[in-house]
Specification:
symport; mainly alpha; membrane; SNS_sf; single chain; Na/ntran_symport; 19 helices; binds tryptophan
Length: about 450
C-alpha cells in the first residue's frame, strides 16, 4: 500500500475541487425553499451563525483528519482509533442515501433545460406545469435515467480533468447569471416584501425546527458529516493553508446560497400576489417560480432561462460526480471490484433506488412516511437525522477522544490558527450539546410529543 497518493496541484486545486463538490443543487434548489419555509430572515440568520461556528469547526476537523491520515473516511477513523471505526462507516452511508434522490432532482433540471431549448419556456411558467410533470409516471424517470447515465459516463471515463477546466468558466458564469436573475427578481413589483421577508429576521417565527432545518442544510450544502471533506483533505498538501482554504469554501458556498435565495424568494412574493402559502411549495419551489421570472422578462428572459438551467445542470453534475465517485471508491476499497463493474453496479443501483423517490409524486403518492413524500423522507432522514448524528460523533471523537490538539497541530503545520479557541470551544462543548438537544427535540416532535 505504498502507492503514492495523488495530490491537488496546490491550494487553488483543493479549493476548486471542494467548492465544486459543495456548490450544487443544495445551494440553488434546496436553500431557497427551506428559507422560504422556515421563516425567511430568521432562517438566514441562524444559518449564517451555524456556518461560522459549527460549520467552520467541523470542516476544519474533517479536512485536518484527512490530511493527517492521508486516508478517506473509513480508513482515516480506523487509523486514529480502532474503536471509532464505525464512524467512518456511518458517515459513508450518507452519500449512498443522498445520491439516488439527488439524481431525481438532477433529472428535473435536465427536463427544464430541454424545455427551454425546445422553446417551451412559456408553458413552463404555467401554475400546474411542474406538479403535472412530476406526477407523470414515465417522463421524470426518463430524465432521471439520462441524468444518472450522464454522471456515470463522467465518473467512468474519468473526464474530471475536463470538468475541472470547464468549471473554471461555468462557475463564474453561474455567479454572474445568478446575480443578474436576482437583480431582476428583486425589482419586480411586489418583490420588496419578499426581500424584507428574506433579510429581516422575524423572531416570532423561530423554532427548534428552524435550527434543525438550517443545520441539516449546512451539512448538506458544505458536504459535511459524510466523510467527503476527509477524503478531500487526504489529497491536500501539508504546506497548503488549511484554515484559509476552509474559509474560502465557506464564503463561496454561502454566497451562492444567499444569492439563490434572493433570486427565488422575492419572485415568490411578486408572482403570487402576496399569497403566503406560495412559500410552502417545498422541493418544487425553484421549478415553479423561476420559470415565471424568465417568462416575465420576455424573449430574452427565455434565453436566460435556458442558459440558467444549463449552468445549474453543470453545478449539479460536478456534485453528483463527486457523490458517485465517493460511493464507487468505497465499494472498490471494500470489495476490490474492478472500476468498470463497480461503476455499472452503482449506476444501476442508484437508478433503481431513485425510482421510489421519482414515483413518490404520482403513482406512489399514497406512500407517505412521516407524512412526507418519499424524496422528502430520504432528504429528512439524511439531513435531519443521520448527518447530525455523524456530526455529533465527530465532535465527541475530535473533542474528547483524539483531542482538539491533534487537529490544531495539523492546521498549524501550514499556517497560524487564529480561530483555534473558537474551534476548541465549539467542538468540545457548544456543538455536541446543541446537536443533541436539537436532535432529541426533533425526534420527540416527529413522534408527536410536544417538544420545547
Ligand atoms: N453539497 C452538495 C450541494 O450543495 C450536495 C452534496 C451533498 C454532495 N453531499 C455531497 C456533493 C457529497 C458531493 C459529495 O448540492
Amino acid at each position: 500500500m505504498k502507492e503514492k497518493r495523488s495530490m491537488f496541484s496546490g491550494k487553488l486545486g483543493f479549493v476548486l475541487a471542494a467548492a465544486g463538490s459543495a456548490v450544487g443543487l443544495g445551494n440553488i434548489w434546496r436553500f431557497p425553499y427551506l428559507a422560504a419555509k422556515y421563516g425567511g430572515g430568521i432562517f438566514l440568520l441562524v444559518y449564517l451563525i451555524l456556518v461560522v461556528s459549527l460549520g467552520f469547526s467541523l470542516m476544519i476537523a474533517e479536512v485536518a483528519i484527512g490530511r493527517k491520515t492521508k486516508l478517506s473516511a473509513i480508513g482515516a477513523f480506523r487509523k486514529l482509533s480502532e474503536k471509532w471505526k464505525f464512524l467512518g462507516y456511518l458517515a459513508s452511508v450518507v452519500p449512498m442515501v443522498i445520491f439516488p434522490y439527488y439524481c431525481v432532482i438532477g433529472g428535473w433540471v435536465v427536463k427544464y433545460l430541454g424545455v427551454y431549448i425546445s422553446g417551451g419556456g412559456l408553458e413552463a411558467a404555467g401554475d400546474s406545469y411542474f406538479s403535472d410533470f412530476i406526477a407523470k409516471p414515465g417522463e421524470p424517470i426518463l430524465w432521471l435515467a439520462l441524468y444518472v447515465g450522464l454522471t456515470a459516463v463522467i465518473v467512468f471515463f474519468g473526464v474530471q480533468k475536463g470538468i475541472e477546466k470547464a468549471s473554471r468558466v461555468m462557475m463564474p458564469a453561474l455567479v454572474v447569471l445568478t446575480i443578474g436573475v436576482a437583480a431582476y427578481s428583486v425589482t419586480r413589483p411586489g418583490a420588496l416584501e419578499g426581500v424584507a421577508y428574506y433579510l429581516i429576521p422575524d423572531f416570532s417565527r423561530f423554532s427548534v425546527n428552524t435550527v434543525l432545518g438550517a443545520m441539516g442544510q449546512m451539512f448538506y450544502s458544505m458536504s459535511l458529516a459524510m466523510g467527503i471533506m476527509v477524503t478531500y483533505g487526504s489529497y491536500m498538501k501539508r504546506e497548503d493553508d488549511l484554515e484559509k482554504s476552509v474559509s474560502q469554501i465557506e464564503i463561496f458556498d454561502t454566497g451562492i446560497a444567499f444569492l439563490a435565495g434572493l433570486m427565488v424568494i422575492p419572485a415568490v412574493f411578486a408572482f403570487s400576489g402576496g399569497d403566503e402559502t406560495a412559500l410552502n411549495k417545498g422541493a418544487g419551489l425553484m421549478f415553479q417560480t423561476l420559470p415565471k421570472v424568465f417568462a416575465d422578462a420576455g424573449t430574452l428572459g427565455l434565453v436566460f432561462g435556458g442558459v440558467f438551467f444549463l449552468l445549474v445542470l453543470f453545478a449539479a453534475l460536478t456534485s453528483s460526480v463527486s457523490l458517485m465517485e465517493t460511493v464507487v471508491s468505497i465499494f472498490q476499497d471494500t470489495f476490490h471490484w474492478s472500476r468498470k463493474f463497480t461503476c455499472t453496479l452503482v449506476m444501476i443501483g442508484c437508478f433503481l433506488l431513485a425510482l421510489p423517490s421519482s414515483l413518490g409524486y404520482g403513482l406512489l403518492d399514497w406512500v407517505a412516511p412521516l407524512g412526507l413524500s418519499i424524496l422528502d423522507f430520504f432528504d429528512f432522514i439524511t439531513n435531519s437525522v443521520m448527518m447530525p448524528i455523524v456530526a455529533f460523533c465527530t465532535c465527541i471523537f475530535v473533542g474528547w477522544v483524539i483531542g482538539p490538539k491533534a487537529v490544531s497541530d495539523e492546521v498549524k503545520l501550514s499556517s497560524k490558527f487564529p480561530r483555534e479557541k473558537l474551534f476548541v470551544v465549539v467542538i468540545r462543548y457548544v456543538a455536541p450539546i446543541c446537536i443533541l438537544l436539537i436532535l432529541i427535540s426533533s425526534v420527540l416532535d416527529t413522534l408527536g410529543i410536544a417538544a420545547i
